[in-house]
Design brief:
Elements: H1 3-29, H2 37-42, H3 52-62, E1 83-86, E2 92-94, H4 95-98, E3 104-109, H5 114-130, E4 135-140, H6 145-155, E5 161-163, H7 168-173, E6 181-185, E7 191-195, H8 202-213
Parallel strand pairs: 3-4, 4-5
Antiparallel strand pairs: 1-2, 1-5, 3-6, 6-7
Helix pairs in contact: 3-6, 5-8
């Protein structure tokens, strides 16, 4: 092989290597659409940075109550087999049995969602009014667990929070890809309502939720 041919071969090899590296970089950095199949493959429940040690401060600031504990009933069939972290204390929760035995309002949200931020205090007020008749459980649908906890701290909202960066609950219950969204579960675990819209006041929540679960508003 002549010298010029050898140089041509070297240049081609370098060019191909650079092209492959660029393709890999683009593939790694591309932004995936929320709820897309690509996101489902890459999403995590929380970031690597959200270690137990790193979450101590945000958890203390948020001061959230513990998540419901599993009871003897199996709970919503669609949620069986899903285990999530309770953001308030880091314990793992078997979601389906934890949501069984009484009506539950699941509030699906994310820390960066403006309407979610507006709605959370109304959810907290609704829970205060309903007492033990209904359980309001929030489901944080972003892998930045620290940010979710700090948002709760900023709002002064003290509701149980499941950390669901992979949006497993929404997928299992076939909730539209919007936030906030509210899922109302009857005591037997069946879905009474899926409400993909924000609420501004506790009165609005009661009017939308209570008739479907048979509790006074």
């Amino acid at each position: 092989m002549s010298r010029s041919a050898r140089w041509t071969a070297v240049v081609l090899i370098v060019f191909v290597a650079l092209a492959v590296a660029l393709w890999r970089e683009i593939g790694t950095d591309r932004t995936t659409a929320p709820g897309s199949p690509e996101e489902a493959l890459t999403a995590r429940d929380h970031r690597d940075a959200d270690t137990p040690a790193a979450l101590q401060g945000p958890r203390a600031a948020a001061d959230l109550p513990p998540c419901p504990r599993p009871g003897p009933q199996p709970g919503p069939p669609a949620l069986r087999g899903i285990t999530l972290e309770c953001a308030g204390n880091g314990e793992l929760v078997d979601v389906a049995p934890a949501l069984a035995g009484r009506p539950v309002v699941l509030n699906l949200w994310a820390y960066w969602c403006g309407p979610c931020t507006d709605e959370l205090p109304a959810m907290a007020e609704y829970q205060r009014r309903m007492g033990t008749e209904v359980s309001v459980v929030t489901v944080h649908q972003d892998e930045n667990e620290s940010a979710g906890l700090m948002r709760m701290a900023e709002l002064g909202v003290h509701l149980p929070m499941l950390q669901d960066g992979r949006r497993l609950v929404a997928a299992a219950l076939k909730v539209p890809n919007v936030m906030p969204a509210t899922v109302v579960l009857r005591a037997d675990g069946s879905v009474a309502e899926i409400l993909p819209r924000p609420f501004a006041h506790a009165d609005d929540i009661a009017a939308a939720v209570n008739p479907s679960i048979g509790v006074p508003g």
